[in-house]
Amino acid sequence: MSLGSHITELRRKHQALSEEVERAVRSPGFSDLELAQLKKQKLRLKEEINRLEMV
């Protein structure tokens, strides 16, 4: 897998997590802990994307 395609895949995963976070925020049954975990995953992906783009 090339670096560009890897970054593209990470962006796709980041977008999917963004959508999941949005659904979770609107869902009354979603726990704060689960929401925090999703946001942490999203942040880790964003940091990885930024790190790889600097290469």
Task: Explain this structure.
The chain is mainly α and 55 residues long. It has one domain (3-53). 84% of the residues lie in helices and 0% in strands. It has 2 helices and no strands. It has helices at 3-26, 32-53. Helix 1 (3-26) packs antiparallel against helix 2. The protein is elongated. The two termini are 16 Å apart. The mean pLDDT is 96.
List the helices and strands and how they pair.
Layout: H1 3-26, H2 32-53
Helix pairs in contact: 1-2
Structural class by secondary-structure content: mainly alpha
Low-confidence stretches: none
How many discrete structural domains?
1
Helix amount, in percent? over 70%
Cα gyration radius (Å):
13 Å
What is the succession of H and E elements?
HH
The count of DSSP E runs of length 2 or more, i.e. the number of strands, is 0
Mean pLDDT: 96
Share in β-strands: under 5%
Task: Tell the overall outline.
Answer: elongated
Biggest sheet character: none
Distance between the termini: 16 Å
Helix count, DSSP H or I runs of 4 or more residues: 2
Give a brief rundown of this model:
This protein is mainly alpha-helical. It has two helices and no strands.
Which descriptors would you attach to this protein?
2 helices; 84% helix; mainly alpha; 0% strand
